[in-house]
Amino acid sequence: MLLIMAAFLIVFMMWTTRSRKKQMEKMEQDKRDQLAAVTPGEWVRTRWGFWGRFVDLDGDIVVLETSDGHEMYWERFVIAEIGGQPPLGTTEEDVVAEASDAPESADEDDVILGLDDTDTQSSLQDSDEQQK
Length: 132
Known about the structure:
By secondary structure, the chain is α+β, with helices and mostly antiparallel strands. The termini are far apart. Helices cover about 45% and strands about 20% of the residues. It has helices at about 1-35, 90-100, 115-130, and strands at about 45, 50-60, 60-65, 70-75, 80. The longest helix has about 35 residues, at about 1-35. The protein is elongated.
């Protein structure tokens, strides 16, 4: 009786391990397919919270571009999310929309921060006199 229970336990452990392994392989394949379908320029988030634009995929290496144009190389397994928009980030479309909604820029002759040309010139002369 004890041998039958031990054999049943061993078979059960092998079955659960095998099903878990199949599930992990399926998840890996889904992730590979998802990364293969990504088009350059899409936003990608890593598991550590880094957002970058997808540039290229070379085997298990993913090339992501930072917002300032630098390219970074990441392992495929660190990719957590594909698509979406980074939080607090501005996209090119947002910048264009803000520029079209913004009022016309102020003339150069307008007062900036309450300073006018006479105050600026007198402060420059005062600093020149102090240096002498």
